[in-house]
Amino acid sequence: MIKKIIFFRILEAARCSHLTDAGFTLLARNCHELEKMDLEECVLITDNTLIQLSVHCPKLQALSLSHCELITDDGILHLSNSTCGHERLQVLELDNCLLITDVTLEHLENCHSLERIELYDCQQVTRAGIKRIRAHLPDVKVHAYFAPVTPPPSVGGSRQRLCRCCIIL
Questions:
Q1: Known Gene3D superfamilies for this protein (predicted)?
Q2: Which pTM value belongs to this model?
Q3: Which class for 9: exposed (0-12), middle (13-18), buried (19 or more C-beta within 10 A)?
Q4: 3-state secondary structure of 118
Q5: What is the rounded CA–CA span in Å between residue 102 and residue 79?
């Protein structure tokens, strides 16, 4: 019997909105050499995928979970406590992960190789949480954007200002 060997170093599954945890579980169990994984907009995946990556992909260095709105702090806990989290994870993209909170940043303090975290539109992450992780990991670059909850009053006459960086003309 011939055994099929699956060998991936980089997997881009971005925008595969129909793939579920079951598919990624199978992939993680068979791709132990995986170094980079892009799961952006894989909207059906949950923390179960992160648990499988934590267990089976010890060489993971970069992971994009942007727009994976079912990912929670618990999934990041599993990732940060794994071999890849402690030793290898350098880039983690969590843009638009609405269930991510400052607790995720506390978990990521275990990731000593972390170089960059993307947190755009993670509405439950605060400036204080970012300040704490940067105190523990001073070299990490945190990219975040904090939109105001409600638009500020008009500034400068007829120009309405919606955020610090945008002006509607």
A1: Ribonuclease Inhibitor (3.80.10.10)
A2: 0.80
A3: exposed
A4: strand
A5: 16
